[in-house]
Amino acid sequence: MDKIILDHVSYIYSAGTPFEQKALDDICLGIRGGCITGIIGHTGSGKSTMMQMLNGLAKPTFGKVLLDGYDINSTMEDVFEEWRILPEYASLSDRKAKKAIGAEIKKRKAGLCFRVGLVMQYPEYQLFEETVFRDIAFGPRNMGLSEEEIRERVLEAAVFTDIGAELLDKSPFDLSGGQKRRVALAGVIAMRPEVLVLDEPAAGLDPLGRSFIFDGIRDYQRKTGSTVLIVSHSMEDMARYCDDVIVMSGARVLRKGSREEVFAHVEELARTGLDIPQITRVMASLRERGVPVPKNIYTVEEAVSALKAVFAEEGTK
Amino acid sequence: MSNIYIHAENLSYIYHDSNDNKEHPALQNFSLDVHEGEYVAVLGHNGSGKSTFAKLLNLILEPTGGTLIIDGKEVTKPDLTDEEILELRKNVGMVFQNPDNQLVSTIVEQDVAFGPENLGVEREELRKRVDDALMTVNMTQYAHHEPHRLSGGQKQRVAIAGVLAMMPKCVIFDESTAMLDPGGRREVLDTVRMLNRDYGMTVLNITHYMNEAAEADRIIVINDGRLLMDGTPDEVFAKRDVLQTVGLEVPQCAELIHRLREEGIALVGDTISDPEACVALLEQAYRKIKKA
After folding, report:
1. Do B42 and B220 touch, CB atoms closer than 8 A?
2. Can you give the residue range of the structural domain that contains A167?
3. Is A294 within 8 Å of chain B by CB?
4. Is the full-model pTM beyond 0.90?
5. Domain tally for chain A?
6. Mean pLDDT of A56-62
7. What is the pLDDT of residues B127-148, one digit of tens each?
């Protein structure tokens, strides 16, 4: 089963006013667990709203968001509806039933914000503690972990995000922009979320800063087997780091699939104000001009080996 | 060659950090000439001094050493009056990263009028400037819209119009596309190109996107407050190894050419920053080897 399921989800801003606007329109979507999924779409296509829904920050106006099969926004009535057909339920007294339902809701919501970690845009503006260590420890501390566990979590997160031990006692406000961003990311990773959701994690960073962030995210995903969702405008980064890609346009899902499947639809992406990686375009032009390179090339590494093969073959003929 | 518009000579900016009570140089002995009508991309990692340089040009910051001459007027003269400073500031307009931080009014045309109005431009002239600026960035139809309901690219175009209405001769874009989607980025870059080509405006584009830098006529690379490289995109991107040591990279097409050459494949040509030129270069090499 998919880790996250959006079941006919709609979200309407300013409902009932003249400014009423659909941010999400009847989205049905499954997101695979244990891989990195990229979400692309032009500004205002509904990406950020969808991200905020995954840990309950925004509640769908209609529809359900399921995490591991459970509706994350379940109410007493919902569970009652679900359970009333079950024979076990019929035998319970009213009081006992209420208690059981209450416990069930608690279970479903328990630690939702720890299980689904959300890294917002420009998260470095949310740093506030006196030291880097304390800032990263804020999440784990709120989870009620012991000091020892907190320490372990902080150090682990610092490794994933490449924050050196010498920085941990510094004030986060004395760090460079790229370092601050990594501290903010570490603060979420320290909660070891099963689902890590990131909105434009590398915006405004230089190339080295970008790869630090993305490599850290990939390391975390590979080592923990968690589910990662990344919103980004950089098609080059998406092609390099994502397994699956979802394309949003006009509050709907336009396309979903492996990065190969999605980036094959060049024209469609261009129409929605998106792009494909430059290297993909270069290789497509070469193909058009009769150089026998394969389709579906999305990274420089892939392009190098494809062209190497072509040149080697021609050279030996 | 046209007139020198920006002349910086041994320019320095040292700031005092209250945390460690030390002086830090953000810019050191920085010398550069930018000619009128040039389109220059400015590269450098976060904290390299790019933005400091931009702020010096607009007199937001005052250099701690060296000489800066803009449009023939010396900005670093010690006895500038407030009027003179205001006059000098009109020379260089700036467009920043976050469109939401630089729009101040609730209606697009009022926002565009904000700058010139504060410069004391007469009503009739103001009307004309606002209309012209909106026409230039192709936003006339949105003149009466609310800025916060526009897309990111449209907002940036409004911000550009606001700068144009002050009629500067030079505009600096400080990572103005960083927060935009690819469509919005294209809109802004096309506008930048048009201002440069059709209106002869001097443009400095500070960016982290190498593909964007490749569109400029000239690239300068700043590292640790010093000028590290200065040349055409092809010249700068030919030195991939130097760029990598300062945390930068080359566009994907140039990277491809570099790596294939490392693999011993003979590719002839210097134009590596433009994807179409790269395609031509690769195709040519393929034909040659096929014939052989």
Report:
1. yes
2. 33-62+114-269
3. no
4. no
5. 2
6. 90
7. 999 999 999 888 999 999 999 8
Residue to test with chain A: of B252, B258, B263, B274, most A Cβ within 10 A:
B252
Do A180 and A261 belong to one domain?
yes
Hey, is the C-beta of A314 within 8 angstroms of any chain B C-beta? yes
Q: Are residues A235 and A317 in the same domain?
A: no
Segment A214-265, tens digit of pLDDT? 999 999 999 999 999 999 988 889 999 999 999 999 899 999 999 989 988 8
The verdict on A204 touching B (C-beta cutoff 8 Å) is yes
Cβ pair A300:B259 closer than 8 A: yes
Q: Please indicate, yes or no, whether residues A299 and A176 belong to a single structural domain of this protein.
A: no
Q: Which of residues 104-133 of B touch A (CB under 8 A)?
A: none
A16-49: b or e for each residue (b if 16 or more CB lie within 10 Å)? eeeeeebbbeebebebebebbbbbbbbbbbbbbb
- pLDDT score at A196: 96
Closest approach of chain A CAs to the CA of B253, in angstroms?
A: 6
A80 found inside a domain: no
Interface touch B255/A311, C-beta < 8 Å: no
> Is the same domain home to A142 and A202?
yes
Q: Is B50 on the interface with A (CB under 8 A)?
A: no
Both A232 and A125 in one domain: the answer is yes
Q: Provide the 3-class DSSP secondary structure of residue A107.
A: helix
Give residues with Cβ within 8 angstroms of B37, minimum separation 6.
B2, B196, B200, B201, B202
Chain A, nearest residue to B151 by Cα: A43
Could you tell me the residue ranges of all domains in chain B? 251-292
In this structure, the strands spanning B202-206 and B39-43 are: parallel
pLDDT tens, position by position, A177-189: 889 999 999 999 9
* Min distance B4 CA to chain A CA atoms (Å): 30
CA–CA dist B80, B82 (Å, integer): 7
Q: Are residues A253 and A309 in the same domain?
A: no
Q: For B53-110, write each residue's pLDDT tens digit.
A: 999 998 888 899 999 999 988 988 888 888 888 888 888 999 988 878 888 889 999 9
Across the A/B interface, how many CB contacts are shorter than 8 Å?
120
Interchain proximity B19–A174, CB inside 8 Å: yes
The per-residue pLDDT for range B23-40, each reduced to its tens digit, is 888 999 999 999 999 999
For residues A193 and A48, state if they share a domain: yes
Q: For position A97, what pLDDT does the model report?
A: 81
Name residues whose C-beta falls within 8 Å of residue B160's C-beta, 6 or more positions apart in sequence. Answer: B95, B137, B171, B188, B191, B195
